Amino acid sequence: MQLNKDLYIIGIGPGNLADISRKAYQVLNEVDVIVGYKKYIECIKELTREKQQLYSTGMRKEMERVEKAVGLAAAGKKVALISSGDAGVYGMAGPAFELIAKNDIAIEVEVIAGITAANAAAAVLGAPLMHDYVVISLSDILTPWDQIKKRLKAAAEADFITTLYNPRSSRRKMQLQETQKIFLKHRSPDTPVGIVKSVGRDGEELMITTLSELPLEKVDMLTTVIIGNSNTYVAANKIITPRGYKI
Amino acid sequence: MQLNKDLYIIGIGPGNLADISRKAYQVLNEVDVIVGYKKYIECIKELTREKQQLYSTGMRKEMERVEKAVGLAAAGKKVALISSGDAGVYGMAGPAFELIAKNDIAIEVEVIAGITAANAAAAVLGAPLMHDYVVISLSDILTPWDQIKKRLKAAAEADFITTLYNPRSSRRKMQLQETQKIFLKHRSPDTPVGIVKSVGRDGEELMITTLSELPLEKVDMLTTVIIGNSNTYVAANKIITPRGYKI
Fold it and tell me: Which of A16, A27, A111 to mutate to test the interface with B (most CBs of B within 10 A)?
């Protein structure tokens, strides 16, 4: 395969080599350098070759990785910058393009889309995302909580299926509880809720529960939460949102 | 590869064999029967083998395909039922699980997630989906227009990045125009809008425009439209929504 770009920004999906796209796999196998968060580098290490350079850093070092990847690409290396899920959803594509545009760096870039957590979690829960849906991150590190709350209210009122990213961490517990309260004002306590931990990875766990019984303490940063809309139901142990077909 | 399920519901992504997941590719290569809309069967025909049975029907025959796939799986065949994009997003996963649950059919099912149009279109536009976003279908065949409008208003008011599926057809032109009006009440006329036709397929076309200048007549059923949030901007010919990092 001829690599005709300088920098590939790649979503590796949930984190196993089966859910990765064929193109992502091939490009990761052929670039000179792979840059990513250390846990994600681990996920794909099996497909790398000895002569490839791997550059990883820890949590919250996103800008360091972006600068490294863009710098190496500008210096003539073929580089892959990886995110888990889809790099375009709260991932590395945004900061990479921001840096490139701000500094007017002349490199060719391709984003290779990946399976984001909403779709990966939905697949193991059944078919909860079959109608209009929102994706909201509950992390208030980069976004004020008031703005997140406004979006949660809008999603609850307008009956969107709602997928929560970064729902809860050891230091940040209030947001998920608040979210539950907001949704209980607009949706039945029996609304199905799916919780998937480490989707697609070793130790994947899933639970189907309801809005009122959502076990807050079981939710952490590796968990994706999907709240159904007013038509969502559970049958044969699957969460199903009807699209409207006559069955 | 050992196929340990009876029915695989597979999202084939935008419609080329590079964007398909490695697992989807392998399963499609090994099942006895592949069921799908005829255009999507064409997309993957190259990977099929002579002894595999292909069953395709035309538009709006979704339930016919679901019944066929579930029936063959119940009869002991290994079956793949395919959707474009992700089968769990306005795709075949919903009606399949509904039919299985309603008729209490004892088959083992796995959904293999695919890249949905929102993520595929975002990848070619830059990084528009880097913050909270909604996915809304403008098709009023199965959903009343009033309900869709309510969701559009909520998305516009709460500053969600908004991806429109099925935005406009030869018979259905009003919805996109109305959507533009709704968004213009809440967002700047200069808000970046990305339009991608036939993403990932032959004849892919993309255009970066603004909310007020959105060329309605260029949008059809094969088009995905992404409307930025209030922070989205265009630089170096890419649509970028900042996540909040200091660049």
Answer: A111
CA distance B78 to B93: 16
Beta strands per DSSP E along A23-102: 33-37, 53-57, 79-83
Same domain? A127 vs A111: no
Instruction: Indicate whether B109 and B131 sit together in one domain.
Output: no
Q: Is B150 on the interface with A (CB under 8 A)?
A: yes
Question: Do A189 and A170 share a domain, yes or no?
Answer: yes
Complex ipTM over 0.90: yes
Residue B210: give its domain's CATH number.
3.30.950.10
Within-domain flag for A170: yes
Residues of A in contact with B89 (CB under 8 A): 119, 122, 129-130, 133
Asked whether residue A148 is assigned to any structural domain, the reply reads yes
Number of H helices, E strands in chain A: 7, 13
Rounded CA gap, A44 and A17, in Å? 7
Q: Which residues span the domain enclosing A89?
A: 7-115
CA angle A79, A83, A86 (to 5 degrees): 115
Q: Which pLDDT tens digit goes with each residue over B107-133? A: 999 999 999 999 999 999 999 999 999
Identify the pLDDT of residue B247.
Answer: 84
* Same domain, residue pair B155 and B222: yes
- Scanning B205-244 for CB atoms below 8 A from A yields 235-236, 238, 240-244
Taking CB atoms and an 8 Å cut-off, how many pairs form between chains A and B? Answer: 249
Classify B148 as helix, strand or coil.
helix
Judged against a pLDDT cut of 90, whether residue B135 lies above it is answered with: yes
Show the CA angle centred on residue B117, arms to residues B34 and A160, nearest 5°. 105
- pLDDT, tens digit, for every residue of A12-56? 999 899 999 999 999 999 999 999 999 999 999 999 999 999 999
